[in-house]
Amino acid sequence: MFLVLLNAFCSILLGYSSGAKLPDPEVKIEVLKKPFVCPRKSKYGDMLLVHYDGYLESNGTLFHSSRKHANGQPVWFTLGIGEVIKGWDKGMKNMCSGEKRKLTVPSALGYGKEGKGKVPPESNLIFEIEVMEIRNGPRSHESFQEMDLNDDWKLSKQEVKEYLRKEFERHGYSANDTQNEFMVEDIFKKEDEDSDGFISAREFTYKHDEL
């Protein structure tokens, strides 16, 4: 998860270009389980930890399960940026931690004409997805505030370095000053557009077309 977080830190989480096109088909959403208490709901830019089972709608064949495959581990992804199929991005907004949904995903929002792996071309899919955890995405307003230690609405190299150190330790890795310095320099090279030595709130959230 830590590597995913660091990669996502230098990626853009929000925004799609729009153009004249037919509207996408819809995802059918059924809520299978919902917790009584829901302190927050998922939104675009959030990182979600999920367990899921994927079936072919045509015959009910299970083509992938996070619990039965991949060592039984749940998976992290960032909602709304195309890391997963469109059906997930469309069907998993406003979910609570502990909520379980059944998504019926048309082919156009799944793997389309090409298919993928055990999924034949033009297959409609059914997913049963349970959200285990929701975290602020690296580009969220909340994450910027967490990193901005002196509340001046810009990030210094020291503030970014301190954030990375905490992330290393939170995920069980030892903090390495040399590695941190390298990562900080790389981040500022990509994000500090005006080269003033700080990453402003605008630079932090702005969509860089080249990324």
TrEMBL record:
Q: What class of enzyme is it?
A: isomerase
Q: Describe the reaction catalysed, as an equation.
A: [protein]-peptidylproline (omega=180) = [protein]-peptidylproline (omega=0)
In the Enzyme Commission scheme, what number(s) does this protein have? 5.2.1.8
List the signal peptide residues: 1-19
The GO molecular function terms of this record are: calcium ion binding; peptidyl-prolyl cis-trans isomerase activity
Q: Which residues form the PPIase FKBP-type domain?
A: 45-135
GO terms for CC? endoplasmic reticulum
User: Which positions fall inside the EF-hand domain?
Assistant: 135-170, 179-211
UniProt key word Signal? yes
Entries under SUPFAM superfamilies matching the protein = EF-hand, FKBP-like
Stored InterPro entries: EF-hand-dom_pair, EF_Hand_1_Ca_BS, EF_hand_dom, PPIase_dom_sf, PPIase_FKBP, PPIase_FKBP_dom
Q: Which UniProt keywords apply?
A: Calcium, Disulfide bond, Endoplasmic reticulum, Glycoprotein, Isomerase, Metal-binding, Repeat, Rotamase, Signal
Quaternary state and interactors: Monomer. Homodimer. Interacts with type III, type IV and type X collagens.
As for what it does, the entry says: PPIase which accelerates the folding of proteins during protein synthesis. Has a preference for substrates containing 4-hydroxylproline modifications, including type III collagen. May also target type VI and type X collagens.
- Protein name as annotated: peptidylprolyl isomerase
